[in-house]
Amino acid sequence: MARVRLDNVTKRYEDIVAVDDMNLEIEDGEFVCLVGPSGCGKSTTMETIAGLTKPTAGSVRIGDTDVTSLPPKDRGVAMVFQNIALFPHMDVYDNISFGLRLRDYERSEIDRRVDRASDIVQLEGMLDRMPDELSGGQQQRVAIARAIVRNPDVFLMDEPLANLDAKLRVHMRTELQRLHKELDTTIIYVTHDQAEAMTMSDRIAVINDGRLQQIAPPLTCYNEPANRFVAGFIGSPSMNFVDGELAAGGLATEHFDLAFDVDGLSAAPGDAVTLGVRPEDIYPASDADSATSPSAAVEATTDVLEPMGDEIFVYLTLGEGDGQTMTSEEAAAASNQLLMSVPPDSPIGEDDRLSVVLDRSKVHLFAASGEAIAHGVAAPSATADAPDASAETAQAGAGTEADSGGTSHE
Ligand code: ADP
After folding, report:
1. Taking the domain 4-227, which CATH number applies?
2. Where is the ABC transporter domain (predicted)?
3. What 3-state class would DSSP assign to 185?
4. Residue 352 in contact with residue 365, Cβ under 8 Å?
5. Which atom of ligand 1 is the closest one to the Cα of 44?
6. Ligand 1 pocket member 41 (CB < 6 A)
7. Measured from the CA of 46, which atom of ligand 1 is nearest?
8. What pLDDT was estimated at residue 328?
9. In the chain, what are the domain boundaries?
10. What is the helix, strand, coil percentage profile of the chain, to 5?
11. Which of 10, 13, 17, 22 best tests ligand 1's pocket when mutated (most atoms within 8 Å of CB)?
C-alpha cells in the first residue's frame, strides 16, 4: 500500500497540453478512478505515475519517495491495460509467473504467489490452460493475477475492462471491488465510463482538458458537482441544463421562471446563471408531493418516450410545442427540452400536454464560468402580496411563489 501524490504535474506534447497543472493526492489503500472523455489526459496522468512518461513539469511521489525520475520497475507499481497481451504460447501459470521468473525468484516462492493470485482472481484449476482456451474475462483475470504476484504498492489499471462485453464488464466490476477489499491496496483506475467510476471508486477524479475538475466520493460528484462539466458528465442520462438570468426572486428562463430565495448566493440579479436539474428531479404536477420542494407548474408537451423497464424517460418540450416528434438525440440537443424520468407504470403518453414541477431542493445553479453556485435552493419566504402559483412563471423577479403543494399563501 502506498499514497500517491502528484504536485503540479504538467505534460506537454509540442503544442498539446495533455495534463495541465494536476494536483492529486490518493490515500493509502484507496480505489480512485480517473474519469473523463476521450483525450482528456487520463492515460497520460496514469503514465506519469507509472513512469512510462516523464512530466514536463511537476513531481510524482509514491509513498515517501519522489519517483519523478525513477524507471517504472523501481516504483512499486503494477499495471493492467485494456490490451491484455498474454503470451499465446504460454499457459496460464507461465503467463502469471513470467515477471517473477525473469527476476529469478525461487520456484517455491513463485508457486506460492501464483497460487495466491490465481485463488484471488478465481482461476484455480486453470493454470495449465492456454490463453486461447480462456474467455475474455478469464484472460483479463490472468492479466490481473500477473500484476498481483508482483506484490505492488500500487495497482494502475488503464481501461482494463474496455474490451469485454457489457455483461461481463458489469461482473468484472464486482470482481475488482472484491479484489480491492482482499488486497487492501491502492488502485488507480482509468475509465471513460462514468458508471464504472461511480460503482467502483472510493473517490472519482473527474478530468477534462487535462485539468482536474473535482476529486470526491461518487455521490458527492453526483449530488454536489463542482462545476457544470462534472454535473453533465456524471450521471446517466445527463443532467438537464437551462440557461437563464438571476432575478431578485429566482431565475428567469425563456420558457419558465423558478422562484427561490436568492439570499446568500454568490451571484447577483442580472447575472447569467444556468439551472441544472436531473431527470429524476422533475415530476408530473399530479405527483408533485413526491418532490421535497416542488416548484410551481411548468407547462410542457411530451415528445418521445423511452421505456427502460424500471423507468420511462420522457422528453418534454417546454411551452406549447410544435407537435413535431423529435428523435431523442434531437430532443436532447434542443434548448427548450427537458428529460424527465417517471415510474414504469406512469400513464403519460406521447404528445400529451403536461404540467411538471422541479424539485427545488435538488436543482443546481451554475455561474457563467461553469462553477457551481448552489446545490438545492430554498422556496422563497412568503410575502404579504404573494401571487398565486400561476404567477410564478410570469414573474420570478417578483420573488414570490405560491406553495407548490397547491395551497396559496394569503
Ligand atoms: P485519455 O486517456 O483521456 O483518452 P490521453 O492522456 O491519452 O487521453 O491524451 C491526452 C491528450 O494528449 C490527447 O490530446 C492526445 O492526443 C495527446 N497525446 C497523448 N499521448 C501523446 C503523444 N505520445 N504524443 C502526442 N500527443 C499525445
Report:
1. 3.40.50.300
2. 4-234
3. coil
4. no
5. 6
6. yes
7. 6
8. 56
9. 4-227, 237-408
10. 30, 30, 40
11. 13
